[in-house]
Design brief:
CATH class of the largest domain: Mainly Beta
Distance between the termini: 97 Å
Strand content: 35-45%
Order of helices and strands: HEEEEEEEEEEEEEE
Structural class: mainly beta
Helix content: 10-25%
Number of strands: 14
Largest sheet: 6 strands, mixed
Number of helices: 1
CATH architecture of the largest domain: Sandwich
Strand order of the largest sheet: 2-3-14-13-6-11
């Protein structure tokens, strides 16, 4: 074998080795170290209510009506960019029972599923008797501009009480669940 043939064989071996290494590394995830790390989604709450010095929001209830509706908003961002179509879950410590004109329930967020019944005056609601009504809509999605909204509708017998409003989302890209809360005093 002459020198020229030896060089050709060595070049072929190098090419095959390079192709094999590149192909193998692609199967073993070579792209992972080079992908940028995703940052956590940030949420900026806009409760559309005044907050006191303790950070509690205040909502004045319209006592001439059974429920007072109020919109709660916020924006979600990742790296300063709006996050579109992120599903939010919402919940509250308070709900009421249709047909029960005396009071409402405050859920125990501690050790048990039991609630505390708070009884008041007479207000007549006679449809869907026995139906539990949460004061917060259960879910919503963010828009293209990152805005997310939900509605709360406490009843007038909740005046003077403080509700905990829960929110949360799951980030599929980071396999991360985020849960938060804030407080609203019903004046």
């Amino acid at each position: 074998m002459n020198k020229k043939e030896s060089l050709t064989i060595v070049k072929k071996i190098k090419k095959i080795t390079l192709i094999t290494l590149v192909g193998f590394s692609c199967f073993t995830g070579c792209s992972l170290p080079f992908e940028p790390e995703l940052s956590t989604i940030e949420f900026e709450l806009d409760a559309r209510m005044e907050a006191d010095s303790n950070g509690y929001y205040h909502l004045t209830l319209d006592t001439t009506k059974w429920q007072t509706t109020h919109r709660i908003s916020g924006h979600v961002y990742r790296d300063g960019e709006s996050v579109n179509v992120l599903k939010f879950g919402w919940g509250s410590s308070h709900y009421w029972i249709v047909g029960d004109e005396f009071g409402y329930f405050v859920t125990n967020t501690g050790l048990t599923d039991n609630g505390t019944y708070v009884g008041y005056d007479t207000t007549f609601v006679d449809w869907f008797s026995g139906y539990e009504v949460p004061i917060v809509n259960g879910s919503s999605y963010s828009r293209m501009d990152g805005e997310v909204n939900t509605m709360i509708a406490p009843v007038k017998t909740m005046r003077g009480d403080t509700a905990t409003i829960y929110y949360g989302w799951y980030d599929d890209w980071k396999d991360e669940e985020v849960i938060g809360e804030f407080y609203v005093i019903f004046d």
